[in-house]
Amino acid sequence: MVRMSAEERRESVIRAAITEFARTGYHGTSTEAIARRVGVSQPYLFRLFPNKQSIFLAASERCLLDVRGIFEAASEGLDAEEAVHAMGTAYQRLIAEDPEKLMMQMQTYVAVASAEAAGDHEFGRSVRAGWEVLWDSAHLALGADPDETTAFLAYGMLINTLVAMGFPAGHRVWTGFYDSARPGAEQPGAEQSGGDRPAGDRPVTGPAEARTCG
């Protein structure tokens, strides 16, 4: 059997940590559960990461990096208006195919808020730094327009909330979004709901009315 390098083990830990933290949050996840998922001992886990907090931060940073990566890939070579649709579609695809990325984001916000409330401001500093890089990336793709960037990210947070709460694509709460920013009809829970028409049957909203992000 081929032995994994320390870097490969580290990658395995980050992937496992995203899965575990996405399901049970920072306080509800044990390092034992992460080690068990990776197939290593806890002592070996702590040779790769000094503590649980560092594992969580690495998982959070990877999540933000992946979101930034899909934004940059989707928007490459496009003008700001085209980039909005491309990034919206790419983000919906990401959270449909890998819902743990969405839940890890949500758990990250909870963990940072909890730490801030407890007076631990260092915990969130790394997360905020990663989020700033994500903001900068979206900002450039949207023509360095602060209003467009704010709207884009604000709608992205609403998308996170609606998807996490399980609203299907045909529900009226999605009416104000571009079609590209709504859950795809092929996604779980995208069936028609509450008598609303499927999202694809509604007119697309205008540029000033809807933006999307991660």
Structural features, described:
The protein has about 210 residues and is mainly alpha-helical. Helix content is about 65%, strand content about 0%. The chain is built from 8 helices and no strands. It has helices at about 5-30, 30-40, 40-50, 50-75, 80-95, 100-115, 120-140, 145-165.
Shape descriptor reads globular
What percentage of residues falls in helices of 4 or more residues?
Answer: 55-70%
**Terminal residue distance:** 39 Å
Q: Which H/E pattern describes the elements? A: HHHHHHHH
Number of helices: 8
Beta-strand share of residues = under 5%
Radius of gyration: 19 Å
- The overall pLDDT, averaged over residues, is 86
In terms of per-residue confidence, which ranges show pLDDT below 50 for 5 or more consecutive residues?
185-214
Reported for the largest beta sheet, the result is: none
The class by helix and strand makeup works out as: mainly alpha
Number-wise, the strands total 0
Gist?
This protein is mainly alpha-helical. It has helices spanning 6-28, 31-38, 42-48, 52-75, 80-97, 99-117, 122-141, 146-164.
Quickly list its features.
214 residues, single chain, 64% helix, 8 helices, mainly alpha
What order do the helices and strands come in, and which of them pair?
Elements: H1 6-28, H2 31-38, H3 42-48, H4 52-75, H5 80-97, H6 99-117, H7 122-141, H8 146-164
Helix pairs in contact: 1-2, 1-4, 1-6, 4-5, 4-6, 4-7, 5-6
